Structures are given as structure tokens and as C-alpha cells.
Fold each of these.
Amino acid sequence: MVEAVSSPEVVRLAGVTKAFNVGTPIENEVLHGIDLQLARGEFAAVVGPSGSGKSTLLNLIGLLDRPTQGRLAVTGQETTELDDAHLTALRGHAIGFVFQYHHLIGCFTAAENVMMPLVAAAGRPRPGMRERAEQLLASVGLAHLAERRADQLSGGQQQRVAVARSLAMQPALLLADEPTGNLDTKSAEDVFALLRQVNREHGTSVLFVTHNAALAARCDRTIEVVDGRVR
Ligand SMILES: Nc1ncnc2c1ncn2[C@@H]1O[C@H](COP(=O)(O)OP(=O)(O)OP(=O)(O)O)[C@@H](O)[C@H]1O
């Protein structure tokens, strides 16, 4: 079991590089010596040109991929020496994800989708999980749609379900990779407001990748990624 150490930072990267093998022995270094800290409760936009390395950076912080070099700590836990099982455990407890495409299971109801991280963590459904899913759906304004199949919801509603699901494990950190990129202006505004609300009410740190300059300007902080470096 990974114990998260109490830490003022929820994320700390020191000298992190990421290179991809693009045909032996050629390596393409995409991120170069990143130093970055995210404090508890911070709400930061990650911006930068297409191909600059934003998603690669988010994948490292989300423990979905490993740095080639450097140190990466999440909720105070140094991760670079952890094996895959411990990384998975830390990811499941510390980090919530919201992607551009919601990745809900269409034939499951909204409540069943929100329950999934809880069922996965416990190994099976347990009493109280459905009530917890219903509470989370109520907190994103969708209590009345708990029993609706996910594929019968609008795009904005699906993304709100995805936000509710991301909060099921009460993560310290929420990673959102263009969560509004596929939505109309009104739905994008609603999802952004929801992430803000989560940040304010629960103190969840948020890293929000966006190409939307107006939304980025409303975050506490802007992290600009250009040519694989943070400015
Ligand atoms: N698995 C991979 N193998 C090889 N190269 C990769 C891989 N993943 C990403 N890259 C390369 O890394 C660079 C950065 O990609 P990344 O997706 O992180 O950029 P981005 O800033 O998120 O772009 P966008 O804004 O278009 O989503 C690109 O040149 C991309 O081709």
C-alpha cells in the first residue's frame, strides 16, 4: 500500500525529461528538464501550441507513463522507483481524470458509471456505493438523471457525469485534458464552472489543459508549455 506523505505540494517535478522511441536507436525527446510544482488547492491552466508536450506532461503527472529522467512526486510520494502495482494504487487514490472524450460506458446508467472507480477499488459492489454515486451526481446537478443510460445524455451532461466519476475516490488532484474541447460554448462554460466549484468546495488541485484562452485566463495560474519546456 502506498502511503501519501503529507506535503504542501500535490505535484513536484524536478528535471523531468520524456523521450519516445521512434525506431531503434532513434529517440525523440519531447519534454526537456521540466521543473514544476503545483500547490494543494491550486487551479492551473496548461496552455501551449499543438504538439508542444501538454498531454505528454499530463500523462506523466497522472502516472499513466513514466519519465525518462528526473523526479516526480505526487501528493508527496516519490514515484520514480515505484513498481507498476504501487503506481496504479497511488493513481487510483490520488488522481481523478477528465478527458476530452468522456469514456463513459454507454449502456450503463449515469450512476453505474460513477460507481465504477469505487467498485474497481473494492473489487466488487458494496453497500453505500450507489448512494455515494447519487450524491456525486447531485453535486454536478444531475440527480434527476442518475438512472438514464449514458448514451442517452447530451455531450455536456456526459462530461458532468465524467466529472462526478473522477471525484468518486476524493482525489487530491484532478487532471483535465481539454475537457471542454468537444463542447458548445454554454456546455463548456458549465463544465468549467463545475471544475471551479470542485476546486473551491473540496480544495482539489486542478490541472486543466485547454486551447481556450478565455477559460485559461480565469484560472489562478497559467503554465505555458512551449517546445517541451515550461515557461
Ligand atoms: N507515444 C508517443 N510516441 C512517439 N511520440 C509521441 C508519443 N506521444 C506523443 N508524442 C509526440 O510528442 C509531441 C508532443 O505531443 P503531445 O500530445 O504531448 O502535445 P500537445 O501539446 O498535447 O498537443 P495538442 O495540443 O495537439 O494535443 C508530439 O510531437 C507527439 O508526436
Amino acid sequence: MRHAHTVEQVRAAEAALAPAPLMERAVAGLAAACARLLTRRRGRVYGSALLVLAGSGDSGGGALFAGARLAGRGAAVSAVLLDPGRAHPAALAALRAAGGRVTTDQEVGLADFSRADLILDGIVGIGGRGGLGPAAAVYATAPRAGLLVAVDLPSGVDADTGEVPGAALRADVTVTFGTYKPGLVVDPGAGHVGALHLVPIGLRPPQAPVEALQHADLAALLPRPATESDKYRRGVVGLLAGSERYPGAALLAVAGALRGGAGAVRYQGRPAEEVVRCHPEVLLTAGRVQAWVVGPGSGDDTPEALDDALASEVPVLVDADGLSELARRGPGALAGRAAPTLLTPHAGEAARLLGGTVTADQVAAARLRHARELAARFGATVLLKGSSTVVARPDGAVRVNPTGTSWLATAGSGDVLAGLAGALLAAGLTPWDAAPAAAYLHGLAGRLAAGEPGAPVTASDVAAALPAAWRDVAEGGRPGGAAGLGD
Ligand SMILES: NC(=O)C1=CN([C@@H]2O[C@H](COP(=O)(O)OP(=O)(O)OC[C@H]3O[C@@H](n4cnc5c(N)ncnc54)[C@H](O)[C@@H]3O)[C@@H](O)[C@H]2O)[C@@H](O)CC1
Ligand SMILES: [K+]
């Protein structure tokens, strides 16, 4: 599990430790990471060109100290001071003493930026507020040939939320200290991070409000049928999905549920004949169900389907048309439910559920805030789909999915996810576990289907790759499994 802590938590944990060893450990880890990158890129540190972008805080201080260490190993180091009067005095002195060149001239800085083998972004760290000023913002788009290493987090990314209020640097590698920060794992910020490397500095932060499941966490969560399993032990999913207009949604949701390990799928919807032709294992009879999935492509049947599902005493996943109906009814529609409800909106549906006071773009730009608000308002677990899928609980706890791929933004992909998450709910997982587990497997299946370096995939390809994703996770132990994920 990757745990992400807020700025307030990090500051409190840092305050419990002596400042000097903290800086020493951070700088040692940062310099070592840079040395490894330079050695991989150029064969050695000696003779490589390094540029430090230094702001006024400790992030700039750490970058300057690391620059000094690498200058000591023979790198040609220059530093641009973005707030010249306020650069970390001891770190600046150390860089100068090690032979580093210091400039405040933007033209010189930009020329060095374009040529350097490695650039250290020490403009701001967790103390960054609002967008970058113009002197720093130019580096967000300036051309460069070398690697950009962000110190703690890419400057311009909000540490607590992952929001990017203005220009932000785009890193190849982010070296973060002590713990992860929400902004490193939630988009749009996460899209600026590149490869993420954690340097332990001895922090002991409290419980994390945001976490990201990794391969080993998934392996522990996924249900495995025991020898005496029957379909009810594995879980029967009831699907209220598809319509004459959208038969495909039913087929894809069924595919997701079956490949999600459902013991059986009971289908209720109009295109029943097509469903059985494609998936002969589906049951059309009424009977016991351990979780309902309502909404994918369910069209005019939605209001009744939603009534039936919400009246049941089993977990209900509401998706697509079900969410539009729920938006019309408002949070009161879930008030009487004793069993859990899982909502799986994309940004547009989330905006509607929030009463139309925000746009889909605003939801996508501030994913944590809106997913939490939605979960609190409806008293339900919310899986907000998108480039980094976010699962929020009504109490504000969040799990972020690390496996997404942009190839998943394809028609019907959400139907597969709904069926898959429904199967995990029917197997007995809580929404808090089922939702991130489904997002993880779905993203991994998308990656496996797209291949490396990646090609377009259909939702059917994603469903077909679910067994491979499942195996990849179950093989566990191996860091990242075949898909190369994990720490
Ligand atoms: N404490 C330590 O020993 C170390 C701290 N480091 C990092 O330093 C950071 C904490 O240091 P600070 O509290 O000094 O915070 P920052 O390094 O984030 O700097 C904050 C300062 O930058 C300026 N600033 C804020 N927003 C800005 C913006 N949008 N554009 C330009 N300037 C802006 C302000 O003057 C503010 O005081 C953390 O990210 C931490 O990981 C590491 O780099 C090295 C070790
Ligand atoms: K930074």
C-alpha cells in the first residue's frame, strides 16, 4: 500500500524530528537517485551537466545541497535562483564551495535548462501555494534534452489535492521524502510525476487519508474459491442493465461480472436473448442475488430497476443511467438503505449528482474534493472514474487507483467495470475494497490488452484480459507481476 499524507501531517511528523538529520537523509537520498540516473544515462556522474532550479524554501535548499554533492563527484553544476534574496543560505554556500555556478539571469537559466543532462526542480515543495509565478512558469514549457527530477513533488502541483492551478513542471522522476503526498497519486497532479521514488527519512506520520493499493494488497483482497465453493459462496450478481437500444451494455457488464469471478449472473433486462446467446452461463430466472448492478444502458427501464435494487437488502452498485435517475431523485433516495451502495460516476455524472453546480471539467480538475463531497452527500462509497480513478468513503477516506491507462477511455469500458465490481460485492467484499480492487484489475487488464508500448483496445478486449490481470495479481510476490507495476 502506498500511503499519502497531507502537508499538515507531514509538517507535524517533521516537527517531531531534529531538522539537520532530516535534511541530511533527504539530500543523501536525492543525490544518490540523481547519481543512479546520470550513470544510467551517461555512464558516470563525472562530466555530466546538472541544473538546479532553486526556489526560496527547503525544497530549493535540498536541491542545492544535492547539487553540491554531485559537483563533488565531478558534475558541472549550475543553479538558477528564482527568488534570489531568499535562497537557502547554507545550501547556496555549499554549492558555491563545491564549485557550482549560480545565476539569476533567466536567459542563462533557460540555456542551461535546454542543455543539462539532469535538472533538479527545487522551485517549491509542499510549501507551494497557487500557480507558479512567471519566472518559474517558463520552465514548465521550455525545451529540454535532459531528465527532470522533481524534488518532493513537481512544482505547481498542489500537494494535498493533486490540483494544478496554473503552470506545473512535468518530471521524469519524482524523488519524494518521508511519505507520499495525495498530489503525487491523484490526477491531474499525478500526470506530472513520472516515476515515483520514496526516500525514507524517519517520519512517523499518522494514518493516511489517501492510499493507493499495490499488487500485494490486491492479491490479499481478491476472493479465491475454496474447494467446497458453490455459486452462492462465490456470489451471485443480479444485473439490471441493457435495453433494446443498448444491448451491448448488458453484454459487457455480464462479461465483467463473469470474469470478475461471479458464481453466477442473474440477468434482468430486455435484450435477454442476446445476452444468453453470447453468455450461455447467464441465468434468466428470478432467485437469490448477493449484489445488484443497476444502470449500464438500462434506458427507460431504469426507474423501476433502481426501485427494485434499492429496495433489496444486498449491496447495490449504481452506474450510468442509474446515476442519472439518482441525480433526479437526490441523496434522499438512498436514505432508507441498510445495505451499502456504491456509485460509479464519471466526471459528467458526478457533476449531475452534485446538483449541476459544477461542470465535468471542474470535477475532473479537483477529483479528491468532488469524490469526497459526493460520498458524504449520498452516504455511499463513490468510485469516480477517470485518468486516476478515485474511491471515496462518506467519512472522507480515499483510495486512488494506480493502474489506469488512457486506452481505457473507450465505449463500454465502464460497463465491464460495473459488472466486475458487482461480482466482487457479491463475493462479500465491502464497497471500500470491491471498488478499488475492480478499478485495479480493470486498469491492469486494459494495460495488458493494450500491450507495450500500447495500442487501442475495445471494452471487449479489456473484459477478455481480466483473467490475465487476475493471474498477474495472484502471482503476487513478484514486484509488479508481468505488467511491471508495484513498488
Ligand atoms: N525539511 C527538510 O529538511 C527538507 C525539506 N525538503 C522539502 O522542502 C519542502 C518544505 O520546505 P518549505 O516549507 O520551505 O517549502 P517549499 O520548499 O515548498 O517552499 C515554500 C516557499 O516557496 C515560496 N512559494 C510558495 N508558493 C510559491 C509559488 N507558487 N511560486 C513560487 N514560490 C512559492 C514561498 O516563499 C514559500 O515560503 C518539502 O517539500 C520537503 O520535502 C527537501 O527538499 C529536503 C529536506
Ligand atoms: K519541487
